[in-house]
Amino acid sequence: MTATVLAGIAIVGVVLGVAIGAVGIGGVLLVPFLTLTLGIDVRRAIAAALLSYLPSCAVAVTLYGRRGSIPWREAGLLCLAALPTAWLGARAAQVAPRLLLEAAIGVLLLSGGVYALLPSRDTATRPRRLGGGTLLAIGGGTGFVSALTGAGGAFVMLPVLLLLDMPVLPAIGLGQAIALPIAGLASVANIAAGIMDPWLAAGLAVTLSVGIAIGTPIAHALPQLLLRRLLGSVVLLAGLAMLVRTAARLWT
Fold first, then answer.
1. Which spans in 24-71 are helix H?
2. Which domain holds residue 17?
């Protein structure tokens, strides 16, 4: 990689890390950035992004846990359910057509962008206790979709938790927690398949961790509305770009 490419990865990693720490989502933009800007194969981009979530989300879980923003009962059930489905999602990503993966990521981005721009439903101040079956279902679905597309667990799960009236900070904390088993199991499958770029993953992990350390205090100090709208707009545009490129390839 050239110095310009490395500088670009560093800047984007820090910026997205700040977004992850502050509003819980941002990592979903990693794969579009790697594929649209750097031309990296979508499968390798997904693999590198997922591996980079292991250390960076460990930082996030530590910081959110110290602030009492992670309900550990819910975290345990969500992570347990995500273990088998993350493995299945990673295996599916290895055999799925590239255009299908890109289209799925584009749709996911569009949905997340629209959701982030909608008014927040968060009115509670304490975590809502969800039933065990509900948590297992959410964790299982999140594990599969996240490993399939390379999106962070928080991006997939946050809309569901907030629709179930989970407060913002515990929802973000749970999203960081579930990313750990998803990233771990998916990375094992991706390494076994020989599609992992460890240097790219390491660079992303370091810069994401720095950004998360900056963004987490922001999440606990500032209103979320402006950050949600800004990030939602970026995610929406990235989804449109991904789908436009996929459509163009289908016509050529």
1. 30-32, 42-66
2. 3-251
